[in-house]
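Morning, I've got a small favour to ask if you have a moment. I owe you a coffee for this, so here goes:

…
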Amino acid sequence: MITQTQLKIKRIFDVSVVVLCLPLLIGPIVLLVLIATIDAKQWGVYSQHRVGQYGKLFKIYKIRTLADGSHNLGHLDDSASLVGRFLRQTKLNELPQLYNVLIGDMSLVGPRPDLQGFADELTGDDRIVLKVKPGITGPATLKYRDEEQLLKLQKDPEHYNRTIIWVDKVKINKKYVQNYSFYLDLRLILNK
């Protein structure tokens, strides 16, 4: 089980990596935001409330990928533009989350931050998932990297997500927290 000391070391590592990488990535991030602004015909960054550590809500930041003003809910984004699809497939739309890591809302590795109605409704020992900050990547994220395509194949994507994918993600994320190690985080970052 992850300890308070491990959580502190995890935080120091997160900040160190972001501080080192941000000077190299700020130019590409600004360029992608400008491209997304032109493509979507509105500001190229959007924010949305997500469930974070201990169930507290925070604002997540992403590069906009939908041209119709919708929010990127992560499911069946048929309204994404060509540029938006590229950003989503390459995960470049998630680069602004480095800011979320820097300010302490997120970690580089952990369970993905959910919309309300999922992680905030966990009960019993499943709530262990909320002990860690949500991550840009994590074991469930890597397993379901093609989640949108998987959902498109389902007759009832919402039901499939809630009864199959979400249940599996909780199991994966519980195992991550219960068996946490710094080495595991490094492996997950390198697999991204």
